[in-house]
Amino acid sequence: MTISDTQGARTTDHDVIVIGAGISGLYAVHKLRGEGLDVHGFESAADVGGTWYHNRYPGARCDVESIDYSYSFDEDLQQEWTWTERFATQAEILAYLRHVADRFDLRSAFDFLTRVTAATYDEELAQWSVSTDTGSTVTARFLIMATGVLSATNKPDIPGRDLFAGETYHTGEWPHHDVDFAGKRVGVIGTGSSGIQSIPVIAESAEHLVVFQRSPNYSIPAGNRPLSEETIAEVKANYAERRRLSRMSGGGTPNAPYPKGALEVDEAERTRVYDEWWQRGGYLFAKAFPDQTTNLAANDTAREYVEARIREIVRDPAVADILIPTDHPIGTKRIVTDSGYFETFNRSNVTLVNLRETPIEEITRTGVRTSGENIELDMLIFATGFDAMTGSLSRIDIRGRGERTLTEEWAAGPRTYLGLAVHGFPNMFILTGPGSPSVLANMVLGAEQHVDWVADAIRHLDEHNSATIEAENDAVDSWVAECSAKAAGTLFPSANSWYMGANIEGKPRVFMPYIGGFGNYANVCAEVAEAGYKGFEIT
Ligand code: N01
User: What is the ipTM of this complex?
Assistant: First the structure.
């Protein structure tokens, strides 16, 4: 199909190319088709789902409540889908996304099993040219990067990494066949969310499980439960209000912190509040008090509370000592939402190896050799995370004006305007990436807010017979400064987290998401649009 541009002179294969068929890419296709645009998508996997297609390791669940972690754009969809558990399993979320794809005929837009390798902007024609690993090259006026923020897996370069002769997996690239742990000696490297979610499930059937922990992590029991018919009916009756509160909130869910700071109440009240948020479960605990991640003394009260709870669960005090973090304020790395994690270390078939004391020296054909011992294994699982937020973009050769690559442009850290656009890369939009609330908020509502904004921007161009929209360099400078200032007002930069790029060697240390709150951010984006796309050059 050939599309005429607004001047009717130049042509492209499509109006819009969307890269990625995860939550944001699926909605982008739906929304932009609804605007009358011709949209074409590429997806490297065999089907839709993005994160939820790949992260199918045992125990994988979302840590945002299912009733919130779902699309709000279509009332019928919202009413007809019924979540079964408070925190949905990966399988249920994937089934939901497949349902959405079927319901709105979204698969027809995508070339599956097709990885985009390069995207180049042609200044003369004002269009993007996208090349894939299947040899195709396709052009469009607009390029939408719906490439995900936790999708480029990180497999650390440990000596001997590829020598291991047993079964080996990465949690973020889990196979589609059943993995049987029974009768096997299994090693898991990594104790982030993926490790902490999978470890209790693996321990149930493995003959022996060895957990290789470099940095301990805070984790709070999910408090997961089946959703009753009454709960579902009540949520569905009040969905509009729930979504309204979510859109105004700091994190994209209808949860508000206690109205006073942690140090403004006495100890009994503080403990009562922590008990209540512990019962709510999961990462939300970081938000019990509004000053918990901005004031170290307030944070200490939360840390001490959680430390005491971990000590109640873990029977061996020496093991508890190893499991309790001492290297970062609680909440400055994403608190893990678990089901029975700390209890797992009371099992006789589980061993914890403290890599801070005895680091891994090499992976061998038969297991892992630390500085203290040789550990024989039948299976080795890397729960070692992702090149977060920028990795999925830097693995594509993206070139803007003057052939400048995005990697060059971001050599000192991601530089965006509103997280959505990059100077020198006209008509390219990034969904839920660095410079936006992204992983600090509900990603589904974040994706909807971004896609709706992009759809408005494209409509604005067409209504004004304009061909391109590009972030101005000054606007990028100001936004980068705004993002840094917001982060500097918190305790987050003090942690060696993937938010900071600290988990990838050589990556610039910059706090990547916008931490000023989801509702505030959406207001800023709306104001920019209302002011005629202030900070953007439109030609
Ligand atoms: O990855 P991580 P993840 N030797 O980077 C260790 C989301 N998510 O996949 O901290 C030894 O957090 C590393 O150790 P250290 C969620 O936002 C959500 O678990 O670098 N160890 C760390 O322990 C989450 O935050 C859900 O010292 C090495 C681990 O590997 C994000 O994804 C579920 C090592 C990596 O942890 C990422 O989580 C899953 C090495 N060379 C994921 N290299 C839910 O919704 C790395 N490690 C619940």
Answer: 0.99
Q: Which helix (H) or strand (E) holds 194?
A: helix 193-205
Q: How many Å lie between the centroid of ligand 1 and the Cα of residue 497? A: 9
From 497, 503, 507, 512, mutation site for ligand 1 pocket: most ligand atoms within 8 A of C-beta: 503
134 occurs within a structural domain: yes
Tokens of 78: 């919202």
Tell me the C-alpha distance between 186 and 210, whole Å. 6
Q: Are residues 74 and 92 in the same domain?
A: yes
Of 319, 351, 385, the domain-final residue: 385
* 368 lies in the same domain as 400: no
Could you tell me which residues are beta bridge partners of residue 443?
none
Q: Last residue of a domain, which of 385, 415, 449?
A: 385
Ligand 1 atom nearest residue 282's Cα: 48
Residue 533: Cβ within 10 Å count: 20
The angle at the Cα of 166, spanning 164 to 171, to the nearest 5 degrees, equals 85
3-state secondary structure of 361: strand
Asked if 339 and 442 sit in the same domain, the reply is: no
| Residues within 6 Å of ligand 1 by CB | 61-63, 150, 156, 158, 171, 189-195, 197, 214-215, 334, 337, 355, 360, 383-386, 439, 498, 503
- 502 phi and psi, to 5 degrees? -75, -15
Distance between Cα 107 and ligand 1 center (Å): 31
For residues 434 and 480, membership in a common domain is answered with yes
44 shares its domain with 117: yes
Q: What is the CATH number of the domain that holds 67?
A: 3.50.50.60
Distance 440 CA to ligand 1 centre (A): 16
Structure-token pair, residue 360: 């891994």
> Count of alpha carbons within 13 Å of 280, Cβ hemisphere only?
19
Q: How far apart are CA 45 and CA 42, in angstroms?
A: 9
Closest-CA residue, ligand 1 atom 16, reads 193
Return per-residue pLDDT of the chain as tens, 539 residues. 334 444 444 589 999 999 999 999 999 999 999 999 999 999 999 999 999 999 999 999 999 999 999 999 999 999 999 999 999 999 999 999 999 999 999 999 999 999 999 999 999 999 999 999 999 999 999 999 999 999 999 999 999 999 999 999 999 999 999 999 999 999 999 999 999 999 999 999 999 999 999 999 999 999 999 999 999 999 999 999 999 999 999 999 999 999 999 999 999 999 999 999 999 999 999 999 999 999 999 999 999 999 999 999 999 999 999 999 999 999 999 999 999 999 999 999 999 999 999 999 999 999 999 999 999 999 999 999 999 999 999 999 999 999 999 999 999 999 999 999 999 999 999 999 999 999 999 999 999 999 999 999 999 999 999 999 999 999 999 999 999 999 999 999 999 999 999 999 999 999 999 999 999 999 999 999 999 999 999 99
Is residue 262 assigned to a domain?
Answer: no
Instruction: Return the ligand 1 atom nearest residue 193 CA.
Output: 19
Domain that holds residue 43: 3-152+388-538
Determine the distance separating the centroid of ligand 1 and the alpha carbon of 188, expressed in angstroms: 11
